[in-house]
TrEMBL record:
The species this protein was found in: Thermus scotoductus
PANTHER family recorded: HYDROGENASE SMALL SUBUNIT, NIFE / NIFESE HYDROGENASE SMALL SUBUNIT FAMILY MEMBER
Keyword terms, alphabetized: 3Fe-4S, 4Fe-4S, Iron, Iron-sulfur, Metal-binding, Oxidoreductase, Signal
Places the protein is found: Cell envelope
The protein's name: Hydrogenase
Binding site for [4Fe-4S] cluster 1: 12, 113, 161
Length: 323
């Protein structure tokens, strides 16, 4: 069996709540079908207090092998680098994390906070939070840019706020069953299986994006128009499979009329949540989107957009759903 240890830093516990809702495979499947032995998880384990401490100490003494270390939440260094804002069993969590990471065959960061710092690392970052191997889009983080686990891999980042549960369980299965070589990572150390495509891939309103027909107000988002041009949807800019691997097997933000907030990218929350940046597309001269789909530039995009609008069929401006 593969021994797995899941520990928690500074965060809202959202990734654990997501993880517990996994379906393909479920958390129970990890144990019964794929041979994962969960040594400790704060929401699953029977162990707590001294029993949990003994598990961690047995790993550090090399009495119990650690195959997979999963970390959720930010690494909190405050105040003044001491880590005392976040203690665990009488020690700063960062100290446990450093030692355990260097014992693990694989290290997995689950969620935005663990991957790049997420919301807690937003300026002014009073808790001195950061991700395991990134701070936003800057490589390094807590473990440093050159960190490699005992199996020779950097931290495997599974971002999201929260990460989809099946992204997590499927990566854990691949690692636990000896197929880690199948987990090909991109430049941000995300599994390409999930993060090669864009959130827009599979979006039910992609036809409106192609014709550059915009949603005019909230409430139209499930009926007509694209949320990108006016409402700050980051679907064309964000790497994720949210419209391929649906949430609860039936929906996604964009399918429900909610703009994608780009939570799998290291810059999240974008523009540091400055006033007027949430659910509003930032524009140059009030017309040209400041950020356009990857692989193009604002001028080319606007030329294409003007041509697309001029050629748009009549149905693209109509409400397609009849009550």
């Amino acid at each position: 069996m593969a021994n797995l240890l899941w520990i928690h830093g500074g965060a809202c516990n959202g990734n654990t709540q997501s993880f517990l809702n996994a379906e393909e495979p479920t958390v129970v499947d990890l144990v019964t079908d794929f041979g994962i032995n969960i040594l400790y998880h704060h929401s699953i384990s029977m162990e707590f207090g001294e029993s949990a401490r003994r598990i961690l100490e047995s790993i550090l003494k090399d009495e119990t092998p650690l195959d997979i270390l999963v970390f959720e939440g930010t690494v909190i260094l405050g105040p003044n680098g001491t880590g005392r804002y976040n203690t665990f069993m009488g020690r700063p969590m960062k100290d446990w994390l450093w030692e355990l990471a260097h014992k693990a065959q694989y290290v997995v960061a689950v969620g935005d906070c663990a991957s790049w710092g997420g919301v807690p690392a937003t300026h002014p970052n009073p808790t001195e939070s950061m991700g395991l191997q990134f701070l936003k889009d800057k490589r390094g983080g807590f473990l440093g840019p050159d960190f490699r686990s005992r199996a020779g891999l950097p931290v495997i980042n599974i971002p999201g706020c929260p990460a989809h549960p099946d992204w997590v369980t499927q990566v854990l299965v691949a690692v636990a069953t000896g197929r880690a070589e199948d987990v090909v990572l991109d430049e941000l150390q995300r599994p390409q299986t999930f993060f090669k495509t864009f959130t827009q891939t599979g979006c039910t309103r992609v036809q409106y994006f192609e014709w550059k027909e915009s949603t005019e107000e909230f409430g139209q988002g499930t009926r007509k128009g694209c949320l990108f041009y006016e409402f700050g949807c980051r679907g064309p800019l964000t790497h994720s499979p949210c419209n391929r691997i649906l949430w609860n097997r039936q929906s996604s933000k964009t399918r429900a009329g909610m703009p994608c907030i780009g939570c799998t990218e290291p810059q999240f929350p974008h523009y540091d949540l400055a006033p007027g940046t949430v659910f509003k597309t930032q524009k140059i001269f009030g017309v040209i989107p400041r950020e356009v789909p990857l692989g193009t530039d604002p001028l080319s995009y606007m030329v294409h957009a003007a041509a697309a609008r001029a050629a748009a069929p009549k149905w693209a401006r109509e409400d397609m759903f009849v009550p």
